[in-house]
Amino acid sequence: MINTISAIEREIFKKRGFSTDEEMLGFLNMTPDMLPVFSSLVDGDRVLDGLNEAVDSGAYITIYGDYDADGVMAMTILYKGLEQLSPGKINWFANDRFRDGYSITEDSLEHLLESFPATRVIISCDNGIGAVEAWNRARELGIKVYVTDHHEQGADRVPDPSIPAVCEKSIKQKEAYAAGKQKAEGFCGAELARRLIMQLYEMKGISANSRDFLESLCAYAGVATITDVIQLNASNHCIARAAIDHIRQDKGFWKIFHENITGGKALQSRIDGDTFGFYYGPAINACSRVRGSVDLPMRVFLSDEGDPGLPGLIRQMAEINETRKSLTEEDARKCEQIIKAHGYEEDPFILIADEGLKEGINGLTAGRLKEEYGVPVIVLGKSGNPGIFKGSARSTDSINIYEKLTECSDLLVAFGGHPKAAGLSIRDENLDEFRRRMTESVSKDYVREEMSADDSDFVLAPSKFTEANIIKLREAYEHLLPFGEGFAKPGFFIEEEVNPNRGIMYMNEGVHAKLRLTARSSDNKEVVILMWNRGSYIKDIEADKGEQKLMIRGMVNLPEINRYNGIVSFQMTSGKTECLYKS
Asked: How far is 346 from 448, CA to CA, in rounded Å?
């Protein structure tokens, strides 16, 4: 129980809309056991009762999940939970990204049944709410279907109301809310799965004897919450925090996973949301992005910690992620060339369609470009179907990309997603009109994000840095972890000169840059800023600088004390920063 809020923490909370210490303490003291049970969600009781009946009858159950990190975590939770109740009767299945695509279709259902012909019950997780034709076909075959999906139900993709379905928005919700049911919105697929297993074990009367196992499920749900960029309200924040606490202390599976997936680059004792977002999630997602399949990560997460082959499997995931990084860098450079060749740099919306771009990583490339140019970006490559481009969209805070795609849905073959991220496919002949209409629509609402000290939590003066005040900042930061969507990291604004003498150093063949500032700390220690994935940007700036001073201005992340070979320095990683000339 946390009883007090420090002055630094109070400043951070107030910037995020909290006004009283009571609100702040309520946020920090939320725990997973305080959250609504699964049956309180719309249709939750029907899903729970149906699954309980399936377990009791010994029916063969196949878990049908998505091929991203949230889907993998959700399938892991359901498999581990159900396998203990019905050994040998549980299977899992996920689409092959390149063969099946995202959607659950009649064809992908056939692939599931080819793999597991004895299936009598399907429970979906992190997908399935729009699988109208597939679920109708399953029922024709005598298979019972239960849906858990945190995505929104499209107006034209309404499954049979008799199918129990927990989703983001449902046609049944208006009446259900009147009856006191809760919304199933704002959670990731893995958190819905966790609550389902928690209550199923309570129904079986075995939750007390399975307490350690049930508490461990927060780790999977918390990783998914961060990697799926779910809003960190009090409920989701407490799940993610529980995950951090569990993984930091775990001496079994998670210790092995962390050491091998990070290659020893991150201390287990310092795990935070960034560890999930920059190490765990990308390594899980890379497997389907590069290979199309999540077989490898599922093998990892369903392995026993004593399996001698486990470290090697995890290292395979890390290696695939390194391949994914190389492919992303290659495509990002190609896209930047296209942007410059066509003069898109100042446009409020960027669309790139190129046959050579790789389907599995278009979302990552779009995200990289969105950060670089500060505008919504769509990156499309050729799909496996002739005449159709397929890819991903990433957007800024001011533009709901899902709504913009909805406005242009008549030009699209298919689309789906969230306000800041979406997937879509489109025919070649519609690309020009799509670009025109999207640019026109985005231009009406787009607000270019300006970097201002007023938007920060703290304005940094490196010349006043001391180890003591940086440690105080770190303590407050640690107290409030994790940060993410809707509960942003503290923003630190800086405007300083880059040292003109060897002030720029490039790393990883020019992919990253390290900037040494002219200003030094109060006790004459070096202060540096690390610019991840912005090496090419710095090279362009440096080439045009001439004799002018190079300034860095904008947001950076939490200052850190860096100790290396007996030398102490202060370093920060760049956020939304820009480099300027000054005579």
From this structure: 10
